[in-house]
Design goal:
Blueprint: H1 2-21, H2 30-45, H3 52-59, H4 65-73, H5 78-93, E1 101-102, H6 143-154, E2 161-164, H7 171-179, E3 183-186
Parallel strand pairs: 1-2, 2-3
Helix pairs in contact: 2-3, 3-4, 6-7
Organism: Streptosporangium album
Protein name: SRSO17 transposase
Pfam families: DDE_5
Length: 206
Amino acid sequence: MAAGVTVAHERWPGCFAGLMDRPADCFPRRETRLTCRNMIEAMLAVEGTANCWTLGEAIGHRGPHILRHFLPRARWDERTIRIRVAAWAIDHLGTEDVVPVVDEIGDETGDEKSSTDAVGAARQYSGTLGGVPEEVMFATKPQLPCEMLTHARERGVIRAWVAADEVYGGRACRMTIREVGYSYVIAVKSDSSGPRAGPAQAEHRP
C-alpha cells in the first residue's frame, strides 16, 4: 500500500503537467493559463469549502483579488478546454467499465445572499433568483447530461454505467442513455409508474 501511494505521488506532477498542457493554447495570455493552473492545484489541496480567499492563500496570493478577477473576467476557450480535458480523462481511464455520475448542475433551491444580509458574502448565484446571461442558450438539467453522455459515446466510451438522482430520472434522459448503449441506475419520483419484472424476467435490461 505504501509503495503504491509513493508511486502515485511520484507520477502526479508529470500527469498533472500533461493535463494542463492539453488546453494550453486555449488561454490567450500566459498569465491567465498559470493562474488557472495554480487555482486547480489549490482546489485539490484545500480541504472543505473553498473560496477565493482560501484558494488565494493556498496559492500564496495576498488576497482574493487575482482570482476574483480571473473567474468572471479572464478570457479563455471554455468549450475547447472541456473537450480536451474529457479526452485526457478517457485516455487515462479507458473507454470501458466507466461510471459517469450525473450530479446536480447548480442548486435546486437556495437563499438569496448579499453583503447586507449575510456576513462576508457578496451576492451569490441562486436558483431562486435566475441570472442566466442572455447570450447563454437555455437547457434543462436533464438535457445537459444527455448531451454530455452522447459526446462521451462519440469520444469512444464504449461501455458505462450511469448513476443519477431523480432529477434526471425522466423518460427522455433514460431513452438517451439506452440509445448510446449504456446501462444505468437512476432514482425516480415516488409517483412514477412502470412495468415490474417478475421472477421469470430476471434478465438484465439496460
